Amino acid sequence: MNKGNKLYEGKAKIIYETKDKNLVIQHFKDDATAFNNLKKAKVEGKGVLNNRISEYILTNLAQCGIKNHLIKRLNMREQLIRKAEIFPIEFIVRNIATGSLTKRLGIPEGTVLDKPLLEYCYKKDELQDPIISKDHIYSFGWATNEEIREIDRITLRINDILSGMFRGIGIKLVDFKLEYGKAWDNETEKKEIILADEISPDTCRLWDVKTEKKLDKDRFRKDLGNIIQGYQEVARRLGIMPEETNISEVNFGKATSIKFKKK
Ligand code: 5GP
User: Fold this and answer.
1) CB of 92 closer than 6 angstroms to any ligand 1 atom
2) Is 41 exposed, middle or buried (0-12, 13-18, 19+ CB in 10 A)?
3) Distances (CA, A) of 236 to 145, 212, 260
4) Spacing, Cα 189 to ligand 1 middle (Å)
5) 164 alpha carbon to ligand 1 midpoint, in Å?
6) Fewest CB atoms less than 10 Å from the CB: which of 85, 106, 258, 262?
7) Separation CA 6–CA 254 (nearest Å)
8) Segment 249-259, tens digit of pLDDT
9) What number does the ligand 1 atom closest to the CA of 205 have?
10) Terminal CA-to-CA distance of the chain, rounded, Å?
11) pLDDT, tens digit, 9 for 90 and up, residues 19-73
12) What is d(CA 176, CA 93) in angstroms, rounded to the nearest whole number?
């Protein structure tokens, strides 16, 4: 599938058009940003790892009946995906209190929540993605009541599936962010809600079960070092990273070769 014009460039990904109006190519960059773009760096190898990890997770979710935008991975950095009109909302799920929840409400770090907590943020960089209520969503027409009900249901199901999947490889799924969109369905000739974007250590907090070592983007946000090694560890435990893979990191940088198991 040939790449056409660039349609959109975000902080970590680029979207290109294709000859098919319903399909686009998602390219994973090595750029890492945090704190509303105040902190930036190139983390060589990150795009390749996120592409592979997200492909693995979205493929597994599809097998569990969760409709998502992934058609197939094309190469080390690119996926063919369904074009979707993205809701301007970040759907956050929390199982353990950390990050902005602890800062905003003073909930002690590490508190295990009785049930998954759903939060909504307005996707607006200039406003630093503020937290919003469902009423904001309905008042400003960002999604309907029915759409949010469906998305909440899918989100909780994803949390169940992924919590189990990660627990099985010794990782706690602490929290994560999802994005959804509406895409054209050729069969029903209607738009349908699908999971979009990516699910990777960039969008999830993943802690080792025994040591609580962070294996996600907090290594970058909090200057913990060994960012790529964290992502690589997630890929390795998921069984999509061969032992001989060689990624070294110097000052958030310098990756050498990354090879993945052939499917
Ligand atoms: P927090 O609100 O604590 O900063 O983030 C909650 C969860 O959502 C974390 O797993 C975090 O990685 C994810 N998240 C929230 N906002 C964003 C965002 O703008 N980009 C990415 N990649 N992840 C986000």
Assistant:
1) yes
2) middle
3) 40, 17, 10
4) 34
5) 20
6) 262
7) 27
8) 433 333 334 44
9) 10
10) 20
11) 999 999 999 999 999 998 899 999 999 999 999 999 999 999 999 999 999 999 9
12) 6
Nearest ligand 1 atom to alpha carbon 131? 2
Does 219 sit in the ligand 1 pocket, CB within 6 Å?
no
Domains recognised in the chain with CATH numbers: 85-208 (3.30.470.20)
What are the CB-based long-range contacts (under 8 Å, 24+) for 63-68? 64/157, 64/161, 66/154, 66/157, 66/158, 66/161, 66/195, 67/192, 67/193, 67/194, 67/195, 68/194, 68/195, 68/196
pTM: 0.93
Angle between helices 46-63 and 145-167 (to 10 degrees): 110
Strand duo 89-96 + 85-86: pairing: unpaired
Ligand 1 in contact with 100 (CB < 6 A)?
yes
Q: Which of 178, 213, 214, 211 is nearest to 196 (CA)?
A: 178
